[in-house]
Amino acid sequence: xKFRSLFSFFSNDLAIDLGTANTLVYAKGKGxxxxxxxxxxxxxxxxxxxxxxxxxxxxxxxxxxNIIAIKPLNDGVIADFDVAEExxxxxxxxxxxxxxxxxxxxxxxxxxxxTQVEKRAVQESALRARASEVxxxxxxxxxxxxxxxxxxxxxGNIVVDIGGGTTDIAVISLSGIVYSRSVRVAGNEMxxxxxxxxxxxxxxxxxxxxxxxIKIELGSAYPLDKPMTMEIKGRNLIxxxxxxxxxxxEEIREALSECVTIIVNALKVxxxxxxxxxxxxxxxxxxxxSGGGALLKKLDKRISEETGLxxxxxxxxxxxxxxxxxxxxxxFRLLKRICIN
Length: 341
What we know:
The protein is 38% helix and 27% strand. By secondary structure, it is α+β, with helices and mostly antiparallel strands.
C-alpha cells in the first residue's frame, strides 16, 4: 500500500477504534461521528441484520429465540468475520450519512499482541466493508497521542489503555514503541467476574447489562471514602423467581480484585523492562490511564501506591484511542512512523 495517496485531501477518510465493547469512528474534519456498542442483532432464520450498535445493545438478553445479539469482537480481535463486516458497513455508512457510494481510507486501532492472522481478519473485514485502503495502528500508541503525550520527543512516556477486551500497555519514545504488552483482561472480564461473584455469594443470576451497571456505580480498586450500596435485581438460582438484593462496594472490590491485580502486575513488568534513561522520564511524568477501565474508581490511587509513580487519567479516557487515530488522519508523517501494516 502506498502512503503517497494520503497526501491528497479526502474528507471521507475515517479513523476507527474497533473496540470489543464500543466502536468509535472519527471523520476527517468532523471529529467523532459514531460512538456505539460493538453489537449486532441478527435474525437466525433469515440471517437478516435486525439492529446494530445502541439499538442492538438494548436487545441484549431480551430477544425472542430467532433473534440473537452477537458481539463480533472478542478480546479485541474479530471472532465473527461476517458479523464484523456487517457492523463495519453500518458504522461507515452512518459516518457518511448513509452514503453507499463512499469508499474511504481507514485507519484502525488494534491491540498490541494480536497475531498476523488476526491483523489480516481486521483488514479483510474493513476492505469487504468498502474501505479503499486500510492502515493498522496500535491502540496504546493511539491512546498516548489522544491523551496529549509528547510521544515524538526523545523521552519516555507510558500509557495503560484499559478497553473492553484487552488492556494495552506501551512505553513510547520518538514516536516508536520501546515496549508493549497486551493482556486479555479488561472491562468485559470485570463484568464477568461480577456476574460470577454475585452468583456465588448471593445465589443470584444477573445479566451483562446489570453487571456493567454495578461496575460503573460501585466498582473500585481501592477502599472508597464513603461506603456505597446498590439494589440489584436478578433471578434466584435456588427458587427460580425474581429477587432483589442489596450489595456494597466492598463486595464488588473483592469481585474485581483479581482483574485489577493482573493489570497492575502487567504494568510492573513493563516498568521493569523499560531502559533506565526512559525510566527516569517516567518517574517524572508518571503513568497515563485511558480507556473505559480508567474510570474504575480509585484505580489511579491503587496503581500509584503499588508502583510509587504519579498516575493520571486521560482527559477523555473513553475517546483517547480514536482521537489519537484521528490525529494520524491529519498527519501523514506520524502515520508513516506508527503504522504497523
